[in-house]
Amino acid sequence: MDFLRALKNLLKPSSNSIHEQAAAAPADDSEKDSADDADMQKASKLWGERARDQASPLRPNSWAECPVVNAEYICPLVSGRPDVGWLEYVAQSYYKNPVARALSLGCGGGGLERHGLQLKIADHFDAFDVSEEALRLAREEAIKSGQQQSILYRVANLNKLQFPEAYYDAVFASQSVHHIEALEHYMTQVWQTLKPGGYFIINEFVGPNQFQWTDLQLHHAQRLLEEIPDKFKQTIRQPGVKHAIQRPTIEAMNDYDPTEAIRSEAIIPELEKQFKIVQRRDFGGTLLHLVLDNIAGNLSDSGEGKAILRNLFAEEQRLISSGEITSDFTLLVAQKI
């Protein structure tokens, strides 16, 4: 379960007022259904824990939390620059001037909204998540940053939520869509609530459903792990040394979080049914995600560790470029036409 834990990186209006529409967004029935749903309750608890973990200044244990991975691998693949992350890249490329209102789906601890306001992507964000605990943390952080008047947080099950038509100028989802089972409903609602010409920005895992890694993926990940000296493979979350990478069973996935990567392979096909993808920036993770789980922070602080990371970057990109493997993570900019 430690492996799975590390990979946890997520209206019908009854008023004429725009603010009141958003405040009234999730109907009481939707919230009740979410509370009664065992799967969503389990996911809600886990996402609350994940939000707390991300707010804690602990040594990074996953690939995407590692500063060297971000600066030397993810950011250059997405923006072309080591100091420009995906959201800043989107702001520079698509939001020269702030839009009036943006929607954040599966917002977790609220980092996207706070950063989005700083980048002047939008004047206001409405943000939804299934986890009360994550939203509590998000509200606290918004108060600390003085942004609480510009963000409205609400609890919602995004498999069921309905949105008003042509209401938002932009929609964002970061590492949350792969928790959605009702993708058809979800994509329809996003399309409906976006204004014509608006963008749906997705930073997402689109790899194997429920982390059922391919044999080839496991082969290369295990090979690369074995090349790392044991002193760098001391596990971060608990004492031990990481020696093996395994495919989790479906039973283990369902027991831990039945929403995890539930239909991740279908995200892009379902998106393309309703939106035009105007830009796609793949940023790998197919092997790094597996190899660096629970050890990523060990490789950031020394020249030897950074050299190992750079070798991993090169090998993953070599295999992706050759077509032997595909990227499990991507940034997608989709437009409502």
What does this structure look like?
The protein is an alpha/beta fold and 337 residues long. The protein has a single domain, classed as Vaccinia Virus protein VP39 (Rossmann fold), CATH 3.40.50.150. The protein has 14 helices and seven strands. Strand 1 (99-105), helix 7 (111-118) and strand 2 (122-129) form a beta-alpha-beta unit. The chain is globular.
Based on the coordinates given, report the CATH architecture.
Answer: 3-Layer(aba) Sandwich
Write down the overall geometry: globular
The whole-angstrom Rg is: 20 Å
Q: Which regions contain 5 or more consecutive residues with pLDDT less than 50? A: 1-32
Helix/strand class: alpha/beta
Write the CATH fold name. Answer: Rossmann fold
Give the number of DSSP strands: 7
Order of helices and strands: HHHHHHEHEHEEHEHHHEHHE
Task: Say which CATH homologous superfamily is assigned.
Answer: Vaccinia Virus protein VP39
Protein traits:
337 residues, Rossmann fold, 14 helices, disordered N terminus
Fold blueprint:
Elements lengths: L1 H5 L11 H6 L4 H9 L1 H18 L11 H13 L6 H9 L4 E7 L5 H8 L3 E8 L2 H13 L6 E5 L12 E7 L8 H11 E12 L9 H12 L23 H7 L10 H8 L1 E7 L5 H4 L11 H20 L6 E7 L2
Parallel strand pairs: 1-2, 1-4, 2-3, 4-5
Antiparallel strand pairs: 5-7, 6-7
Helix pairs in contact: 4-8, 5-14, 9-12
Give a nutshell description of this structure.
The protein is α/β, with parallel strands linked by helices. It contains 14 helices and 7 strands. The protein is 42% helix and 16% strand.
